[in-house]
Recover the amino acids of this structure.
């Protein structure tokens, strides 16, 4: 290794140690209470390091944001027939293009799982990262559910994060399990006009790279060109009954990010000319008091084979009818 690279690697290790990240995964000789306190300290420090914090601070009080260059964009997306792919809890394989190496880690700041991934939560083998060692909505495991329905009418008018927005989204999505139970997500009476750890562009964005190395959204998803996306608060239902509200809802129309066997792609495996729509209701909620996110498993009402309840919805629609124009 060159001397300059060695200095950089040592600097990264020193930074992580100085932040107390190693202490958060202390040895078994530490007390449970001490471990809990160290993990909380680690969480706060990681959230404070979210890379867009300064940018968001410049926008959070803006009452008169500028509009989209060229004017608003209207988006309509529907699926009337066909099934959906539902992600199951899994350990995400880590792309070196996104997460770097143990000697030079990347994408570790922000709330773990919803933004970055702490190095100490990454498996290591032969000098490379292997997987995120916690179960998450992002991985290779999935199942197919029937009767997928999707209806979205949206407007991207506001260009940036701000205190107010002219963006709009009306979304209704549903699907059915083998027992005949119907699951629904509805959004958004209130859009996330301003992001917490990364930008939301007024709540709706069109023609933007998200996730992966962009650090806009979780790095556990590949870096993907996104034709349309939104963030807002909505309702989650089972058999017509609201089971959770309000909940954070994120949806996006992207390049195709699944490979053979429906494995979640690395960046170099993305298919640019094929599209899919992702609907995400994460097991987190915004923590406005601390400027980050807190864990809050979603009561989906869908039981996994191990008897545990699925704590999120990550649902992919692929039989799409898409229309868009300048409004």
């Amino acid at each position: 290794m060159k001397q300059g690279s060695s200095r950089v690697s040592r600097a990264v290790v020193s930074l992580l140690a100085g932040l107390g990240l190693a202490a958060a995964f202390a040895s078994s000789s530490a007390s449970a209470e001490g471990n809990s306190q160290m993990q909380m300290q680690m969480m706060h420090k990681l959230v404070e390091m979210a890379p867009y914090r300064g940018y968001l601070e410049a926008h959070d009080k803006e009452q008169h944001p500028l509009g989209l260059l060229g004017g608003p964009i209207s988006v309509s997306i529907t699926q009337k027939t066909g099934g959906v792919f539902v992600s199951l809890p899994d350990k995400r394989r880590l792309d070196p293009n996104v997460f770097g190496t143990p000697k030079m880690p990347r994408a570790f700041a922000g709330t773990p799982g919803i933004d970055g991934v702490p190095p100490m939560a990454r498996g290591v083998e032969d000098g490379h990262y292997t997987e995120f060692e916690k179960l998450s909505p992002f991985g290779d495991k999935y199942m197919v559910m029937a009767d997928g329905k999707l209806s979205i009418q949206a407007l991207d008018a506001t260009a940036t994060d701000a205190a107010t927005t002219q963006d709009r989204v009306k979304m209704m999505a549903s699907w059915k399990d083998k027992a005949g139970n119907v699951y629904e997500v509805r959004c958004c009476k209130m859009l996330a006009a301003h992001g917490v750890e990364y930008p939301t562009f007024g709540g709706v964005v069109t023609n933007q790279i998200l996730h992966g190395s962009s650090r806009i959204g979780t790095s556990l998803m590949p870096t993907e060109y996104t034709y349309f996306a939104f963030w807002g608060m909505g309702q989650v239902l089972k058999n017509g009954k609201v089971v959770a509200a309000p909940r954070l809802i994120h949806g996006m129309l992207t390049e195709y990010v699944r490979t053979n066997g429906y494995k979640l792609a690395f960046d170099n495996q993305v298919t640019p000319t094929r599209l899919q729509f992702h609907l995400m209701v994460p097991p987190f909620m915004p923590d406005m008091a601390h400027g980050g996110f807190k864990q809050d498993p979603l009561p989906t009402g869908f039981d996994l084979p191990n008897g545990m309840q699925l704590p999120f919805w990550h649902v992919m629609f692929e039989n799409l009818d898409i229309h868009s124009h300048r409004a």
About this structure: The longest strand covers residues 241-256.
